[in-house]
Design a protein that fits this description.
The protein has one domain. By secondary structure, it is mostly helical. It has a two-stranded antiparallel sheet with strand order 1-2.
């Protein structure tokens, strides 16, 4: 599997700020390991104790959206950004 990730608002490349494109070749097993790790990261973000405020909720939602988008990209699903109301 070859993964190409363009730097967008939803998926920002934090690994290589000099480039807008990151290409990674993964085996199915490697991809599955990364997806499993992302589930732990998502749980960690959701369970992080913080003062309940709108700013904290917004930051948490942004992190969860980035994690969901990366998971979708790795799973081969279309990345869709949810509309905020």
């Amino acid at each position: 599997m070859t993964l190409c990730m363009e730097d967008t608002d939803l998926l920002q490349s934090e690994f290589n700020p000099m480039s807008d494109l990151l290409t990674v070749e993964l085996s199915k097993e490697q991809r599955d390991e990364i997806l499993r790790g992302l589930r732990y990261v998502r749980s960690s973000v959701m369970l992080t104790p913080a003062e309940p405020s709108e700013k904290v909720a917004e930051g948490r939602n942004e992190k969860l959206q980035r994690i969901a988008a990366l998971s979708s990209l790795l799973s081969g699903q279309e990345v869709v950004q949810k509309a905020t109301v």
